[in-house]
Amino acid sequence: MNGSEPNDGPPGSQGRRTLVLTAAITALLLAGGLLLGWGVGRQQPAPPAAKNKAGESRAPATRTPLSDGGASSPSGGGQRTEALSASRPLSITIPAIDVTSPLEDLGLGKNRAMETPRDPDKAGWYTPGPAPGSVGPSVIAGHVTWDGAPAVFFKLTELDPGDRIEVRRADGRTAAFTVDRTAVYPKDEFPTVEVYRNLDHSGLRLITCGGDYSASDSRYADNVVVYATLTDSTAGN
């Protein structure tokens, strides 16, 4: 793909696909910097099913009790490291699924709607939230498919606990995260507070669509969320 704007955008989208937030979630957004898991219509084919290490498809995740955000080690292995000061993220690399992408800026558009990446081959950072590497749950989102072709996060469900995610930052440092888990949620049961709640450490959330695709609704049934924790950082040359 060459990054040009698809020709099937909704009227008034001004080149970006958006999801209008419900009133309840908008209130959360205004109070605590939260956003809702989003979906992008007119996407196919279906992405790979989420798998565990035994190769079996995962069932959609159920909500789990929230932890207290303490200092225990990440569930994916590795040792949690001290958060960095805020710095603009420039690119993301996920070696396990052969993803390397510059990052677009994603903000809020009309009607308190979250913007999604212009280019289906690029991921985007949600700029009102924490910067990757700083304290809190930073969010990077990407399309799963676009106009019948795989997009940047097509293989996101193939990530396993312990896989590495690297975010290169404007301050010259690379923040390295370790995957804790991958969860699949029906869109109408998206656990917004669990995904975007405050943390006392640096976390990362990768978000895309998943599950079955409905041609009549032009949407996927689920959202895929990868949870990861900062476990290393290195200075650039």
UniProtKB/TrEMBL annotation:
GO terms for molecular function: hydrolase activity. SUPFAM superfamilies: Sortase. Keywords: Hydrolase, Membrane, Transmembrane, Transmembrane helix. It comes from the Bacteria. Residues 43-87 are annotated as: Disordered. The chain crosses the membrane at residues 20-41. This is Class F sortase. It comes from Streptomyces globisporus.
